[in-house]
């Protein structure tokens, strides 16, 4: 096998060498570029929002441009959600960017109350109400179609524009700080296993702690909760209630989890299992588990979660996807953990 142009020789690499190479691959080839991509998407979101709000009488096509910018930023955000440690976790940045699970009616209440009480958006968000300031609030403002509160029909459209600009600016500011901290110091500590980490093994266990946590979030919060016990399910439990990009989110999440595991085309744990543990069989089994998830995602591509949870065939497709995710988690939490001695700890999902 090869990785990053280097030949991987079965069983001839030390644990220390393998851990060092995995950390370098994950940091430099996965986390650093995806942080930059999300930051770039927030810059675009802010620019598009500012331009939109300069239009005196915006049309649906103008609003769609903002919606597409949000979709792009949200997609990049979904890619980094499993890296909830270090600068992304500091000062509650993670939940300030997206507080979820959180029922849509509570988001509506928080957003509308801010509008009704003449919240001063020019000074940013100085309170601790996270649901007012993140991507879900922006999603509600630009995708909601309820009478009187849809963006183009709302009487307080100018105030809603001020709100949009404040959210976009805040999201951009938060990610700018996160990206700077990661690049300037934290990524080096992560790769070296020092600073807040006791060792390189501890750094990897921290990574996989949140890796497992987010796999649980996908299976439980993003699929099982909306599915409910019987049709028509619980549509209010969807992650993207207004934009309805739930399966797109999950595809980004799983793609991210796979890259955090295998470091893309660089030296990752797929290579580690061969070079350190001489377990190509386990590597192949995990690749099959990932492939099964993507196959299940292909079956629901272009469909809406809210529609599928109401029909027998759609519910079956969601169950199949959930089972594929659970199957991956089972192998990772047993064979992978035992073979690599990476002990991340489980049941860490704190719900945000």
UniProtKB/TrEMBL annotation:
Report which superkingdom the organism of origin falls in: Bacteria
UniProt-recorded name of the protein = Imelysin-like domain-containing protein
Q: What is the lineage of its organism?
A: Bacteria, Pseudomonadati, Pseudomonadota, Gammaproteobacteria, Alteromonadales
Annotated compartments = Cell envelope
Q: Which organism is it from?
A: Pseudoalteromonas luteoviolacea S4060-1
Keywords attached to this Swiss-Prot or TrEMBL record, sorted alphabetically, are: Signal
InterPro entries annotated for this entry? Answer: Imelysin-like (IPR018976), Imelysin-like_IPPA (IPR034984), Imelysin_sf (IPR038352)
Residue limits of the Imelysin-like domain?
Answer: 31-330
Q: Which residues form the signal peptide?
A: none
Which Gene Ontology cellular component annotation is one that this UniProt entry carries? Answer: cell envelope
């Amino acid at each position: 096998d090869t990785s990053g142009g280097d030949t991987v020789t079965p069983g001839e690499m030390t644990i220390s060498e393998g851990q060092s190479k995995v950390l370098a691959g994950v940091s430099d080839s996965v986390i650093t570029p995806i942080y930059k991509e999300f930051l770039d998407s927030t810059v675009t979101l802010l620019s598009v929002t500012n331009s939109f709000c300069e239009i005196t009488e915006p049309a649906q096509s103008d609003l769609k441009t903002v919606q597409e910018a949000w979709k792009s930023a949200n997609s990049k955000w979904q890619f980094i959600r499993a890296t909830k440690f270090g600068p992304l976790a500091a000062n509650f940045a993670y939940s300030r960017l997206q507080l979820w699970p959180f029922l849509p009616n509570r988001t509506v209440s928080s957003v509308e109350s801010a509008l009704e009480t003449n919240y001063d958006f020019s000074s940013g968000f100085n309170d601790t109400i996270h649901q007012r300031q993140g991507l879900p609030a922006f999603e509600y403002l630009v995708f909601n179609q309820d009478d009187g509160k849809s963006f183009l029909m709302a009487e307080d459209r100018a105030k809603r524009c001020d709100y949009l600009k404040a959210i976009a600016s805040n999201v951009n500011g938060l990610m700018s700080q996160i990206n700077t901290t990661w690049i300037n110091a934290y990524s080096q500590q992560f790769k070296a296993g020092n600073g807040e980490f006791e060792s390189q093994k501890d750094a990897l266990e921290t990574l996989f702690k949140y890796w497992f946590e987010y796999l649980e979030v996908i299976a439980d919060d993003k699929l099982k909760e909306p599915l409910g016990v019987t049709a028509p399910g619980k549509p209010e439990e969807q992650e993207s209630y207004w934009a309805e990009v739930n399966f797109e989110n999950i595809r980004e999440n799983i793609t991210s989890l796979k890259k955090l595991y295998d470091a893309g085309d660089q030296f990752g744990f797929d290579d580690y299992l061969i070079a350190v543990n001489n377990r190509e069989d386990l590597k192949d089994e995990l690749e099959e588990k990932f492939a099964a998830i993507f196959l299940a995602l292909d079956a629901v591509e272009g469909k809406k979660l809210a529609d599928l949870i109401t029909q027998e065939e759609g519910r079956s497709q969601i169950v199949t996807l959930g089972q594929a995710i659970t199957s991956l988690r089972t192998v990772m939490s047993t064979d992978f953990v035992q073979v690599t001695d990476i002990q991340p700890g489980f049941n860490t999902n704190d719900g945000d």
